[in-house]
Design a protein that fits this description.
With 173 residues, the protein is mainly α. It has one domain: Actin-related protein 2/3 complex subunit 5 (Serine Threonine Protein Phosphatase 5, Tetratricopeptide repeat). 55% of the residues lie in helices and 6% in strands. Helix 5 packs across helix 6. The chain starts with 31 loop residues before the first strand and ends in a 5-residue tail after the last helix. About 11% of the residues have low confidence.
Length: 173
């Protein structure tokens, strides 16, 4: 029978260091520190290359939507999401571009046709953006009813595995 010695010598790993709240960000070479004058001198990390790419993508998507090529713009915005970027401004900009594209589709048949042309990775990225849209229903131009239609069609194509992959993935959009 085992006896209790109240000893902690068997503990070799400090599990508290792996807590999500204690994680320290490491910035690469392609990041620049910019002073934000919101509440005094604070700094935020802006990935300039990603920000510029999304800015140009936004302009390109607007012109594609204006010419009626919404399907091609959907493929374009889902191709490279900024999941590795730590800057919330860049993620918000990408989210607004994706929602602009998603909200331009009208009718269940058009949405189903668009979703059926996506691959597995694009379905997962689309699901991430759909769930983020559900988190922020007050965003300008976002219709939860239309997001529900997108969710229904993406679920039909991607299955429950898509939802599980999105919910367990730590990389947010």
């Amino acid at each position: 029978m085992a006896k209790n010695t109240n000893s902690s010598k068997f503990r070799r790993v400090d599990v508290d260091q792996f807590n999500e709240d204690n994680f320290q960000e490491e910035f690469g070479d392609d990041t620049v520190l910019v002073n934000a004058a919101v509440d005094g001198p604070s700094s935020t990390c802006i990935d300039i290359e990603t920000f510029n790419r999304i800015e140009s993508l936004r302009d390109e998507v607007r012109s594609m939507i204006a010419t009626g090529d919404a399907l091609q713009s959907l493929h374009l915005v889902l191709k490279e999401p900024p999941v590795r970027c730590k800057d919330q401004l860049v993620k918000d900009l990408a989210f607004s571009v994706v929602m602009q594209v998603v909200m331009c589709f009208k009718g269940s048949e058009n949405i189903e046709e668009a979703v059926n042309q996506l691959d597995k990775e694009s379905i997962d990225v689309l699901m991430k953006y759909i769930y983020r849209g559900f988190e922020n229903p007050a965003e300008e131009g976002v219709s939860c009813a239309l997001l529900l239609v997108w969710h229904e069609k993406a679920l039909a194509k991607g299955g429950l595995g898509s939802i599980i992959r999105v919910m367990t993935d730590r990389k947010k959009v």
